[in-house]
Amino acid sequence: MRKTEVPESVKIVGNNIKEIIKEKNLKVRNVAHDADLDIEALRRYMLGKQIMGIDKLIRISKALNVEISELFQKI
Fold first, then answer.
1. CA end-to-end span of the chain, whole Å?
2. Torsion 42-25-62-30 (CA) sign
3. Is 27 left (phi over 0), alpha (psi -120 to 50) or beta?
4. Which residue among 10, 11, 47, 70 is the one 20 to 30 A from 4 at the CA level?
5. Start and end of every HTH cro/C1-type domain (predicted)?
6. Among 25, 15, 14, which Cα is nearest to 57's?
7. Contact in structure between 44 and 11 (CB atoms under 8 Å)
8. Angle (nearest 5°) at CA 35 between 55 and 27
9. Main-chain dihedrals φ then ψ at residue 52, nearest 5 degrees
10. Residue 16 host element (H or E)
């Protein structure tokens, strides 16, 4: 049995997180710490390899100091 493909929207959100981190010159480890996430989990989210729950999205948006809607741009 094959693992279900991650939806394209998850990949877009992950890429948006990556772009915001880059634009703000932040370090992934600091964002992970501020969001109370394991750094590897945040990296999986950024690569679009893992689906995020709403609680994680809220914590990430707060750590990035952006409105949660910014994570959903280009969907």
1. 29
2. positive
3. beta
4. 70
5. 17-71
6. 14
7. no
8. 140
9. -100, 140
10. helix 8-23
- Whole-number Å distance between alpha carbons of 33 and 60: 10
Instruction: Please state whether the predicted TM-score (pTM) of the whole model is above 0.70.
Output: yes
Pair of tokens at residue 67: 């409105």
Residue 20 corresponds to which tokens in the numbers above? 């915001």
For 45-74, write each residue's pLDDT tens digit.
999 999 999 999 999 999 999 999 999 999
Residues comprising the chain, all counted: 75
Among all chains, which residue has been given the structure tokens 């280009």? Answer: 74
Encoding tokens for residue 8?
Answer: 């394209």
Q: H or E stretch including 64?
A: helix 54-64
What are the percentages of helix, strand and coil residues in the chain, rounded to 5?
65, 0, 35
